[in-house]
Amino acid sequence: MTPKFYAWLAHLANRDATLAKLALFAIGLIVAWELLRFMPPRWHVHLRALYMVGFLLIMFGTAALIYFGAQP
Amino acid sequence: MTTLTAKLTSWWRSREDDLGDVWPFLLVADALYLFRIGAAPLWYDEAASAWFAQVPLANMIIGTASDTHPPLYYLLLSPIGHLYNWSPIALRLPSVLFALLTLYLVRQIARELHLSQAAQTIALGLMVLSPFQLHFAQEARMYALLQALVLGATLAALRKQLLRFTLLSALSLWTHNYGLFFLAVNSGVLAWSVWQTRPRWPVFETGLIVAIAGGSAFALWSPWAWVLYQQMRIVAGGYWIMPVTPGSAVFALTNLMYAFTIPPWLAPMGVIVAMGLIAWLTIQTVRSRAPEALLLLWLVLAPALLAVIVSIVWRPILLFRGLAPSLPALFLLAGWAFARLPRARQLYAAILIVPLFVSAIIGQYLWTPDQKSAEDQQVLDELRAQWQAGDLIIHSSEGYLVEWHPRGADLPQVMLPRTCPLGNLGGIAQATREALGMVDADPDTLSWRRAWFVYLVFPTITQCDADMADTFLATHPHRLAFAIQGDEFVEANIWLVTR
Question: Could you give the ipTM of this predicted complex?
Answer without folding.
Answer: 0.94
